[in-house]
Amino acid sequence: MKKLSLRSIFILAIPTLVWVIGLLFSNIWWQENILSVTAIPFLFYCLALIFTLFLRNTLQFTFCLPFIFFWGYIQPLDNSTSLSQCPQTLKVFQYNLRYENPNLDPLVYYLQQFPQHLLIFQETTPEHGGMLKEALRTQYPYQFGGQPRVGYPNGQLVLSQYPLFSMKTIATQAGHQIIHGIWHPPKYQPIELYTAHPPSPRNAQLWAERNVLLMTLNNLVEDYLDTDSASPAQLIVGDFNLSSTSKRYQTLFSGFNSQPVSSWPNWSGLRQYLTIAIDHLWAHYPLEICKRKALINIAGSDHRPIVTYLTMQK
Asked: Is the dihedral of CA 60, 62, 63, 64 positive or negative?
């Protein structure tokens, strides 16, 4: 039997050590972006496992297995279930349409055949918005986005089967818009609704603007929860351009529940373990997440649409 040398241990352990230490000090835009892609160490250990099989080194193979399981475990799945039973389900559909999306017909057909209670869209062009609002007006009569002097705040559009009240936008210093209002399904208490679409952190400036929006929203929610008139039922939805495996994600919205599912990129043939979760939903008790699932049968965007099943505890 071949030995497990110190050099082999060091080579196999160093990617995980670098990743863990990097997460603690990831305050540079490109560093945080790289560390958010956990598929990189996962693929490294997959290749290492194959290499140890080729070398017929049982000890190295065995040493690799815990790393494979660890990186596979933290990788978000296509669906996530937190409650086995979900009475009186509320369904929330969220989708980054992609500005260049050439055909929304499959999406419209799906939403007509499989009704949801609340629709949250990002990267909505005026053409997209006009088509969706008109085609879905009968089933989703309550709408925010596309009105004069409102437009589509950061490309966002909200459609609902149930009433929307006091809908407004809140701007950050960089001009990015947060939508805030009240969603009131029948037989439920009013739900405070927040939606946002911070910029993709493609450079240092956009990374900083995304972080400011996240902190603005986090402080807005916390301050509101501290008021006497606050409804405890809170819902935060959007494409946040923030990986669920990042340290920053773990610091947001204390007391809220979120179940990340893989949503980007939605490339043909790309395996789930090579994607990341950036389209999120947070719910505050008495709202609880029963399950979330990413749909794979709607093409046209680099994101997968996600359906979240919610219930409200009495």
From this structure: positive
Please tell me the distance from the alpha carbon of residue 240 to that of residue 145, in angstroms, as a whole number. Answer: 19
What CATH number is associated with residue 291? 3.60.10.10
**Residues comprising the chain, all counted:** 314
Bridge pairing between strands 234-239 and 191-196: parallel
pLDDT in tens, 134-169: 999 999 999 999 998 899 999 999 999 999 999 999
How crowded is the C-beta side of 12, counted as CA atoms within 13 Å? 24
Provide the H-helix boundaries in the chain.
6-24, 29-35, 39-55, 58-74, 105-113, 126-135, 204-225, 247-250
CA 213/CA 31 separation, integer angstroms? 20
Q: Say yes or no to pLDDT of 231 above 80.
A: no
Q: What are phi and psi of 280, to 5 degrees?
A: -115, 160
Which residue, 33, 58, 74, sits at the end of a domain?
Answer: 74
pLDDT at 87: 79
Residue 169 and residue 156: Cα distance in Å, rounded?
A: 11
